Amino acid sequence: MRNFTLPSTELMVSGHLGCQGCGGALAMRYALKAVGENTVIVIPACCWTIIAGPFPYTSLKVPMLHAAFETAAVAASGVRAALDVQGDTETTVLAWAGDGGTFDIGLQALSGAAERNENIIYICYDNEAYMNTGVQRSGATPFLAWTTTTPEKTPKTEPKKDIMAIMVAHRVPYAATATIAYPDDFIRKVQKAKSIYGTKFLHVLAPCPPGWKAPSELAIKLARLAVQTKVFPLYEVEGGERYTLNEPGREIQAGAPVNEYLKLQGRFSHLTEEEIQAMQTVVNARWEQLRKNAASF
Amino acid sequence: MTTVLTGTKKVVTGNHAVSYGAMLSRVQVISAYPITPQTQVVELLSELCANGALRAKFIKVESEHSAMAALVGAASTGARTFTATSAHGLALMHEMLHWAAGARLPIVLADINRAMGPPWSVWTDQNDSLAQRDTGWMQLYCESNQEVLDTVIQAYKVAERVLMPAMLVLDAFVLSHTAEQVEIPDQALVDQYLPLYQPLYKLDVNSPRSFGALAPPDVYMELRYKMHQAMEDALEEFARADEEFEKFFGRCYGLIEPYRADDADLILVTSGTVTSTAREVIDELQAEGRKIGLLKVRLFRPFPKELLRQALSGVAKVAVIDRNISFGMGGIFAQEIKSALYNVHQRPSIFGFVAGLGGRDITPAVIREIIDYTENHDEPEDLIWIGVKR
Fold first, then answer.
1. Most buried one in A79, A121, B115, B180, CB count within 10 A?
2. Does A42 reach chain B within 8 Å, measured CB to CB?
3. How close does chain B come to A264, measured CA to CA in Å?
4. B59: which chain A residues are within 8 Å (Cβ-Cβ)?
5. Looking at CA atoms only, how far is residue B57 from chain A in angstroms?
6. B180, B144 Cβ separation under 8 angstroms
7. CA–CA separation, B142 vs A293, rounded Å?
8. In sequence order, what are the residues at sequence separation of 6 or more whose Cβ sits closer than 8 angstroms to the Cβ of residue A49?
9. Where on the phi/psi map is residue A53: left (φ > 0), alpha (ψ -120 to 50), or beta?
């Protein structure tokens, strides 16, 4: 049994436009609870462009700048610079982008911001495809997954881009993974990010029931299974080298097979036994590498 | 050695005139990326920031697209912002130029006019800036280094009044790398002329608002109407800012400037540094007894239609020099001037000349050739290429 009390602050209100079971909506709610009201949020084109609500509405109680698709990290850098130059070094600047805006079109600006060590928190809520435009493959789409641009007969043949490795290679002061299934872990990581100066990067798995072809009530369960099957391990990297696996209490030592996670999602329903085994092999190898990284510190 | 005493005269290049203009405007956030021939602008700004002459945050971004995106963030947070670029850098910013205008952010940008590749060219022409005509940016074409410096300051004045971004434009090398004597205005006077930027709305945790959210069809068009109205207002605001500037600093430029154009039978229309060369030619021609005048167009967006109608409607012939080309149509200033004059009863015959692309010199002889051609032909022509080897 673990005891954890969610911060009672609610900076996201009802009436938002997320789909039923939207992992990205829940991720925002938790992130804002963690980061608090003294925050400016920058949102590039992504599902949250819609979820936030059209003019003249907003579902957030923090100031929000909608930004161009590829500019989350750099628009946030600009907000940070303007706050700093006006003497406000306390307000947190949070860039909040989807996987397309992070792994693909926004990677250059993110790399630039990380290289400059801009004092921002960057959270990528990853639903593993261009969901807002109707489920097209992105660099974050998993190996062999179905999307509308990787139909079942020719599913995605490339593995998911390792965005964490890319950010760690920038030696950002703090990088971590999280999911909506473990709010205590997620909130602790956002709060830790807030306490550190420089570019902080969080990679948050945010299940998308319509895009993953899964029932909406399974969103949290899918996120939990992603961790338990090691498809999406929870870990932190400080200073570009100190790895910590966040495994205690997550029942992942038992090592559930990846199919426990895959079989609940229509996007993987075309997979053969061999393909599932191939995915298991990749997941195992990556887990071992992470364990080695963590063990060396 | 970059410390500069304000209220003094100094020999500076066009690029450094831009930097001093930004310094005197007390810009707070700068974001830029190197590109020839602009780079000296941000090199000097870096030094001015480093030695404390300018208290600004300078974000050294990884692309021009990011340069403008950073300024969108900074200006939305209430800072006075500046960048400079050229050619491909400006083209890469294109999406964000729309963004800055749509967000009604008074960002000021200096574009050092450079021809677009391929083939690679670093020399001047106006296709880079004119390709941004419909982004919602005000555009001013400068003739001298003094005008460059003064225009930076005026641009902030107007941009912050009408909440539209402004671009000042100067010719690569002909101005950017050419040194002239420039009066560096007194900082205290500039502070009076251009007080701190105080936006009505900004990203503020004490007053949370959403900026740029999805606008359904029932509101989008009104927002575009307001942008157009702001541009219309900018015509008056520029005239006012120019008058105020003259009271403070003893210089003004107008939105357009007729030069020895009274009683002229033929008026030559120019923009940028070609104007200076043309002034010399006009002086010579008038000394020869020919009734040829000159009209400089300084403000291109908003386009000073009414002033142009007043200046050109009674004239028999107009020759427009375009250092740019809209492929499949012709010179862009000529098109705009024809469009502005179409609904006027007494409209002149308008001859469109394209010259000086990719930095080819527009010499006094070239300008004489243009004037002679216009005088010797009765029927106007939309597009006459000057000096092309066929």
1. A79
2. yes
3. 34
4. 74, 77-78, 81, 116
5. 6
6. yes
7. 59
8. A43, A66, A132, B213, B214
9. left
Closest Cα in chain B to A117: B59
Q: Quote the ipTM score.
A: 0.96
- List the single residue in A with minimal CA-CA distance to B218: A55
In sequence order, the β-bridge partners of residue A201 are: A122, A175
Residue numbers in B near A37 (CB within 8 A): 205
Which chain B residues touch A52 with a CB distance below 8 Å?
210, 213
Taking an 8 Å cut-off on Cβ atoms, the answer to whether A108 and B66 are in contact is yes
The answer, as to whether pTM is greater than 0.95, is: yes
Using a CB–CB cutoff of 8 Å, tell me whether B7 touches chain A. Answer: no
Whether A245 and A290 have beta carbons less than 8 Å apart is answered as yes
Q: Which of A135, A137, A122 is nearest to A73 (CA)?
A: A122
Question: Degrees (nearest 5) of the Cα angle B75, B78, B84?
Answer: 30
Q: Which residue in the set A49, A66, A68 is minimally distant from B95, CB to CB?
A: A68
Contact A186, A107 (CB under 8 A): no
Chains A and B: how many Cβ contacts under 8 Å?
A: 157
Predicted confidence pLDDT, tens digits, chain B (390 residues): 455 667 899 999 999 999 999 999 999 999 999 999 999 999 999 999 999 999 999 999 999 999 999 999 999 999 999 999 999 999 999 999 999 999 999 999 999 999 999 999 999 999 999 999 999 999 999 999 999 999 999 999 999 999 999 999 999 999 999 999 999 999 999 999 999 999 999 999 999 999 999 999 999 999 999 999 999 999 999 999 999 999 999 999 999 999 999 999 999 999 999 999 999 999 999 999 999 999 999 999 999 999 999 999 989 999 999 999 999 999 999 999 999 999 999 999 999 999 999 999 999 999 999 999 999 999 999 999 999 999
Which residue type does B50 have? A
* Cα of B105 to nearest chain A Cα, Å: 13
Helices (H), chain A: 23-35, 47-51, 72-85, 99, 107-115, 163-169, 183-194, 209-212, 219-228, 258-262, 273-295
How far apart (Å, rounded) are the C-alpha atoms in residues B269 and B337? 9
Beta bridge partners of B170: B112
CB-based contact A186:A179 (threshold 8 Å): yes
Q: With an 8 Å Cβ cutoff, is B49 touching chain A?
A: no
CA distance B296 to B66: 34
* CA separation for the pair B309, B331 (Å, rounded): 19
Chain A residues with CB under 8 Å of B213 CB are 49, 52-58, 64, 66
Tokens in use for B342? 């179409």
Contacts A70 to B, Cβ<8 Å: 65, 69
* B142 vs A196: CA distance, rounded Å: 47
Contact with chain A for residue B135, Cβ under 8 A: no
Strand-pair partners of A238: A174, A242
Partners of A53 on chain B (C-beta within 8 Å) are 210, 213-214
Q: Which residues of A touch B81 (CB under 8 A)?
A: 78, 82
**Distance from CA of residue B216 to its chain's centroid?**
33
Backbone angles phi, psi at A239, to 5 degrees: 60, 20
